[in-house]
Amino acid sequence: MTFNRSLWPKTMAARIVLLLLVGLGLSHVISLSVYNFDREEIVNLIGRAQLTERITTITGIIKNAPPEEREKIISFANSSTFQLDLGTTSTVKNNDPLVAKRFSAALSELTSFDSRMPILAETVSGEDSIWRHLSGKSTEKHISITDHFEHIVNEIRTGALIRVSIEIGDNSWLNYQAPDVEATMPWSIRFVLSIAVMMIATAIFSAWAAHYLTDPLKKLSIAAEDLGRSVTARPIPEKGPLEVIQSVRVFNKMQARIYRFVEDRTQMIAAIAHDLRTPLMRMQLRSELLDDNELKRKFSEDIDEMNQIVTATLSFASEDAGRKKNDRFDIVKLISDVVVDLSTLGFSISWVPPDPISLEGQKDLLRRALSNLIENAAKYGEWASIHIQIADGKLIITIDDDGPGIAPENIKDVFKPFFRLEGSRSRETGGTGLGLSIARSAFRSHGGDVTIRNRAEGGLRVEAYLPF
């Protein structure tokens, strides 16, 4: 037998609820079964004592009654569940000494009872008696047709009968037949209702307990997701069971170490950039003293390019650290502002703004990322077409161009820092190889990403998406 894992709950809270329900349910069923077993014993003892007392009393009355009155007494005592008749033979086929002894002890208390008179008794299944009813061999003569069939139904329900035959003298036998006392079925309405109430109460309590116990784990998961976006996320409160507190404490320490590492790296790069700018400035001043104008121009271009690389490197490192506070803003308006700025510089851009879309994030960081992507498409692809949509819980910004595209073997490398393509997408047109790296880093810090691929009709398609 194999366990179907698809039926096993996925979440820890659901598993806790299921285990509690199963465990407490089984415990409740076992407890009620034990209680019902004890109850059966008591009911059986009381019921059989009452049956014995009834037979004893009726036997004493009939034995002391005049013969002409006995038939009336028998007719009055008969019912659908208690049958007796007066005959010349016993109806007991297989005497059970233990059952007979019970009635003998009770009858011995009657002063009119002769202990030498035989008493026969047996317990039989209801099938034998039912067959006698259906075949017309029943000895009951004092009940109506309705009571006759009611007696059959009662025997079916109880499943066992007790027969007692007592000789009262004059070759006369009192033959009794009644259902053997059995306790009610354990799966009664009350039994099922008690289990249902217990299960509902357990489900409510265990759901609350599971939520209380797993809530710190949910916060830990959310914090891990936030850490993937920004190392400046707030530490998690250390609450909950001891094991959870220890896990949260370790996570907070790890986050602090990562933040210190990124901060130290940023400060180191800032110091390097600052130190590089000083000699670059001296080189710029010294180049002005050159008499050869062509040589002076080449020196100046190289120095400007180095300054550009240093500035871009510092910007990339500082933005990668993600220290700025999130704001709520309209991403549609942000794209529109970028398009207006780039259009004034002569770039050809197609953009039809949809309805406003509110988003939370680092507005300036995303503005620079979008500016890099749109400018890159318009500069190297002759024009840029921008579309925005929301699908599958993501906000997707699509930027198409009509440029020469990128060789398939180079697509995986375009997001690497300082990677530059030959041809039109090269440093001679003003790039440093950090634009796409900065853009992807910005979107990833918000839980999104940037992908790039060649279009079938030519050009590139850049898709930048954010969680929404």
Write a structural description.
This protein is α+β, with helices and mostly antiparallel strands. It folds into 3 domains: 25-179; 230-301; 326-467, 2-Layer Sandwich (Heat Shock Protein 90). It is built from 11 helices and 11 strands. It has helices at residues 12-64, 67-77, 97-107, 126-134, 145-158, 189-229, 242-287, 293-321, 331-344, 363-380, 435-444; strands at residues 83-87, 119-125, 160-169, 172-179, 327-330, 349-351, 358-361, 384-391, 394-401, 449-454, 460-467. It has a 5-stranded mixed β-sheet. Strands 1-4-3-2 form a 4-stranded antiparallel β-sheet. The two termini are 44 Å apart. 21% of the residues are buried.
Describe the structure in brief:
The chain is an alpha+beta fold. It contains eleven helices and eleven strands.
Detail the poorly predicted runs.
127-158, 423-430
**How does the major sheet shape up?**
5 strands, mixed
Q: Please give the number of β-strands.
A: 11
The structural domain count equals: 3
Number of helices: 11
User: Which range best describes the helical content: under 10%, 10-25%, 25-40%, 40-55%, 55-70% or over 70%?
Assistant: 40-55%
**Secondary-structure element order, as H and E?**
HHEHEHHEEHHHEHEEHEEHEE
Rough outline: rod-shaped
Strand composition percent: 15-25%
In whole angstroms, the N-to-C terminal distance is 44 Å
| Quaternary organization | single chain
Calculate the mean pLDDT score and round it.
77
- What integer value in Å does the Rg equal? 48 Å
Identify the strand order in the major beta sheet: 6-8-9-11-10
Given helix and strand content, the structural type is alpha+beta
